Amino acid sequence: MRIGGPDVHDPTEKETQTHDQLGSAAAAGRTLPLPPDPAERGRRFGHRVGHDRRHRGGRGLRDRRRRDEDRDQQERPARRLRLEARRQRLRPLRRDESGVSAVEFAFVAPALIFLIFFAIQGALFFYGRSVAIQSAREGVSQLRLAQDEATYLDIRAGVKANTEQFATSVGREALIDPLATPAYDAEQGRVRMKVHGRVISLIPMLDLTVTEEAEGPVERFEGAR
Fold first, then answer.
1. How many domains does the structure of the chain reveal?
2. What single DSSP character describes residue 192?
3. How far apart are CA 34 and CA 26, in angstroms?
4. Between the CA atoms of 23, 24, 28 and 29, what dihedral angle is there, to the nearest 10 degrees?
5. Does pTM top 0.70 for this prediction?
6. HEC string of 104-164?
7. What are the average pLDDT values for consecutive 10-residue runs of the chain, which has 225 residues?
8. Alpha carbon distance 221, 120 (integer Å)
9. Maximum distance among all alpha carbons in the chain?
């Protein structure tokens, strides 16, 4: 449609032409394809554009990663040299720790050795104490045979010697210089034996002594009636 000037597009004219074409095609028995839907064209075009963008973005990401890897491969020797140079600069500032283990052992070893000797010394002390107790009991078992004070005076020296010999033979060197002291109580009818001695010492200038005592009633024998 022309209105006194340049051509102006009139949508009504285009629709009229389309209807005329459809009418003539229907009269001739032919079917014309429908014009494409603008919305459908937009979706197709947008899908293609998005696909192209994603495809181009994937290639760009792979290319960027490849470039980064190549750059790392090229810069790795230089980075290693920089790290080595930094270590060389910091090396004089570090403390020299050579010989630290020996110094630590020099401080710890005396305490450890002292603990070991202390444990052994404690075991020897308790062993000497046990020997003294057993010797005193052995002496009491012999003194109980004294029915009266006269009998006690007769067997006193022999029991004392036997007790000291027993302590020496059983204790070996755990109980040094054992000394047995017997006693008799006529009023209560009881006997007593005291054993005194020194315990072997592993620590210089350490004198350990033990004194143990045992007692018991005098045995009485009555004649048969």
1. 1
2. E
3. 13
4. -30
5. no
6. HHHHHHHHHHHHHHHHHHHHHHHHHHHHHHHHHHHHHHHHCCCCCHHHHHHHHHHHHHHHH
7. 46 51 55 55 50 53 76 74 76 64 86 90 90 91 85 88 89 84 87 91 84 87 54
8. 47
9. 174
Answer whether residue 111 is part of any domain.
yes
Report which of 113, 115, 121 is spatially closest to residue 208, judged by C-alpha positions: 121
The pLDDT, as a whole number, for residue 77 is 76
**Residue 65 belongs to a domain:** no
Supply the pLDDT for residue 195: 93
Q: What is the pLDDT of residue 193?
A: 92
Residue 133 lies in a domain: yes
Identify the DSSP state of 173: T
The single-letter DSSP state of residue 93 is G
Helix 149-171 to helix 100-143 angle, to the nearest 10 degrees? 150
Domain of 120 in residue numbering reads as 106-217
What is residue 49's predicted lDDT score, i.e. its pLDDT? 46
Name residues whose C-beta falls within 8 Å of residue 216's C-beta, 6 or more positions apart in sequence. Answer: 140, 141, 143, 144, 190, 191
Does the residue 40 lie in any domain?
A: no
